[in-house]
Amino acid sequence: MTASSAAVAVVSGFLRVPSIQKSQNPSLLFSRPKKSLVRPISALSSELPENVRNFWKWLGDQGVVSGKSPAEPSVVPEGLGLVARRDIGRNEVVLEIPKRLWINPETVTASKIGPLCGGLKPWVSVALFLIREKYEEESSWRVYLDMLPQSTDSTVFWSEEELAELKGTQLLSTTLGVKEYVENEFLKLEQEILLPNKDLFSSRITLDDFIWAFGILKSRAFSRLRGQNLVLIPLADLINHNPAITTEDYAYEIKGAGLFSRDLLFSLKSPVYVKAGEQVYIQYDLNKSNAELALDYGFVESNPKRNSYTLTIEIPESDPFFGDKLDIAETNKMGETGYFDIVDGQTLPAGMLQFLRLVALGGSDAFLLESIFNNTIWGHLELPVSRSNEELICRVVRDACKSALSGFSTTIEEDEKLLEEGKLDPRLEMALKIRIGEKRVLQQIDQIFKDRELELDVLEYYQERRLKDLGLVGEQGDIIFWETK
To answer: Is the pTM of this model over 0.90?
Structure first.
């Protein structure tokens, strides 16, 4: 079979449209996390910025913190964080924040702009609320809003010059896609809400304001909580990430305030033992790639398991067997397009080879698409179908890898040399690590299919397996013929 006899599209790009409603963990990082050795600083000390001292006092006035609170805000390598005032045990509660101090879609509904926000996406309504309150001098959220950063190191805040350092990466295309998505949401918001209701907004809201609010929500909002998919929790969102913590279990939850109370509390626990004076950390998300960490929070890790590359494989509508292939894909919980995240040092994702073989089916192999094979074809695709089919998928994937690698302006060795020289801007360092990680995974994918090409002559294909099942192949692999008398 030749390449023209089956249409295979492997798109080397991250094509999923990101959404703020995607499950995410809380965060606030201004640079890459490091272990904190800072001693506890009294929250009333002049060493803390005035806005932080005002914030702590406000929390005290609200009855949320006191002199007995286990942790307090402090200046840490990341910027701000929570530092233990005393030893904190594993799974011990660090703080509890009542629902009246949460900012979520319910908060928006109860506000002056609530009637305007009913038809908006939840994240858009919360973003609009944040911006409006930010410009309201008498806002009841003033002390909290004054704590929020003007930007983070998330790639959505990078300049064009800084983004140029991501040339060739999927992170660059993802970041540009996210910014386009946010801009489109803003333009809709401007036409439907902002311009017709100027009297409700004391200041003109700009796209930069909207991107700021998006970045704040992306980096700080808690989700995966009982009844809460998007919520900002003042004080709790100062908690920083530590890669040394390898569990997400029980770090935070929503619970009742008491046996006879209907109030709800956000409860944050320390997943590990923390000594007095050390920073309290949690694990943001064990499953996010470095690209996702960079986009959401503005940092990356050195852990190679965070390096990944997404191969996007689709069944072209021009394929003469498009309908049959789509039916088979959907029967096996897939669709017209398959997204496969390949991780540094790990095997290919489950189902990837099967999907590739399905997309490449054609010519003399097309009989497998007949209805008689509907219940068994996915099992057949777990193993090589034919030499021509296997050769095609190897060639297409390797070509895609080479094409993606050609989009980079530097080699891995050149990037590593820059890293070794040190004294880099945090964003440039992040870009270098992203570039190195993606290139390593692309080289890994290419090597996997290069090795497979070398095995094409010794692999066992469908027809041989079928003959064996029928007892028509001998021990040496020779076909057995019977002579009729």
So the answer is: no
